[in-house]
Amino acid sequence: MSDRDRGVSSRSLVRAIAVAALTVTTLQTFGAIPLDARTSHHAVVIASVGNKIRTQQAEIDATHKRLNEKRSQLRFAQTRAQDLHNQLAQTARDISHVTATLDELDALVDHNKRKLAWNEIQLNAAEATLARHNSALRRRLVDAYERGDMGYVNVLLSSTSFADFVERWDDIRFLIAANQKTVRTRRSAERNVSHARRRLQGERASLEVSLQRQQQAKYHLAALASERVQLVNAADAQRRNVSFQVAQLEELSASQEAQLERYIRERQREEAARRLAEAEARRRAAQLAGRAAPPTISDGGPSAFAWPASGPITDPFGMRMHPVTHQWKMHNGLDIGAPMGATIVASAPGKIIYSGWEGGYGNTIIIDHGGATSTLYGHCSQLFVSEGQEVARGQAIGAVGSTGISTGPHLHFEIRINGVAVDPSSKLR
Fold first, then answer.
1. Which of 6, 148, 311, 368 has the most CB atoms lying inside 10 A of its own CB?
2. Percent of the chain with pLDDT over 70
């Protein structure tokens, strides 16, 4: 059956029940229906509401299952999107690092080019000077061979005295030594410059190889970044889509839980009407039998409640920052700290009108105590009672747990009057 069909069926059932209730009330007003029939009518209505509660609970369970699946998908999508964002950020940092390295290598290549050019200028100058010296030396040797030029000897022989001879000898010797030193210096310079030239050329080649590798790395990282940008966009789109689905299911779950609350309050009203009808039936039966009529009951509900579990109050009644959703909202009960599996007892005598899963409360028990008063016990790990069961004050009804939206084992306890939560701390004895 589709959701629409179920909705139409539910509305038809509600209209039928409303018509039946109106008919019964009219007949009761004119005395056409006996009191035992009224009691039977309330029992039928209660059974019908119970069926609606169970149907609604099944729908909530199905929605909750789908919601859990979508939340798991959302967590995975969020984790994947965050990982891809981190990878993209790391790729961007790698690209920045490679770009900075490329800039440094470019600057170093330019520096070495200028240094190589300057050394080439020095080398060319040294080679030119050396060439001039070599040419002059060759010409001198040729002149000496062809013309018998004995310039140094003539200089010595033209001396006027022995002292002048010695002085000219020293000058010639120093000149020859200077020429030889100049030749050696130029040759050494030539070797040094040639060596520097080879070294710089080798460094230039090595830098160019490094530059090519860095360029290839940059191109590879740029391609990787483009690919990761596409993956990040796809992951973000998936995360947004799943997040939207989760929001829709949460809205549906909240609507279904609100409807369940209305059914539970309706059952409470019917239970109260049933008890009043039963009391009236007993009073009428006693009158017909000639016995003293029992006192008229006051369906005002209990005035005091027992502590449902042993432990300290870890979160009081009132506005608070929710520890899971981190939203500022009303806390409709008391959180009682107790270990996992600790016994939960009924705070007052009454009838179990709900025992099952209820959204964020997890495994939940609701007891009707009459007078439109009920108590709720949430996050149970185990449920010891079932719907329709009568319980006494202090009777074990469940075990402490951490089901539903919970951060750890504890009991969430509420007292509701006419469906409105009140502070339990003033009523616990």
1. 368
2. 76
Is residue 257 included in any domain, yes or no? no
pTM of whole model > 0.70? no
How far is Cα 393 from Cα 346, in angstroms, rounded to an integer? Answer: 5
DSSP string of 216-242, one letter each residue: HHHHHHHHHHHHHHHHHHHHHHHHHHH
Label residue 4 by pLDDT band (50, 70, 90). very low
Domain that residue 395 falls in: 300-429
328: left (phi over 0), alpha (psi -120 to 50) or beta: beta
Task: Quick: pLDDT tens for 302-359.
Answer: 888 999 999 999 999 988 877 766 677 888 899 999 999 999 999 999 999 889 888 7
Has residue 32 got a pLDDT over 50? no
Neighbours of 75 (CB within 10 A): 13
Phi, psi dihedrals of residue 117, rounded to the nearest 5°: -65, -40
Q: List, in sequence order, every residue forming a beta bridge with 351; answer none if it has no partner.
A: 368, 390
Contact 267, 53 (CB under 8 A): yes
- What one-character-per-residue DSSP string does 372-416 give? TEEEEEEEESEE---TT-EE-TT-EEEE-B--SS-SSSEEEEEEE
CATH at residue 335: 2.70.70.10
- For residues 42 and 158, what is the distance between their CA atoms, to the nearest angstrom? 157
Region of 296 please: left (phi>0), alpha (psi -120 to 50) or beta.
beta
Cα–Cα distances (Å) from 402 to 61, 308, 329, 341, 362, in that order, read: 17, 16, 20, 10, 8
pLDDT in tens, 104-115: 777 877 777 777
Average pLDDT of the residues of the chain: 77
How many Cβ atoms from other residues are within 10 Å of residue 363's Cβ? Answer: 20
Number of domains in the chain: 1
Sign of CA dihedral 359, 361, 363, 368: negative
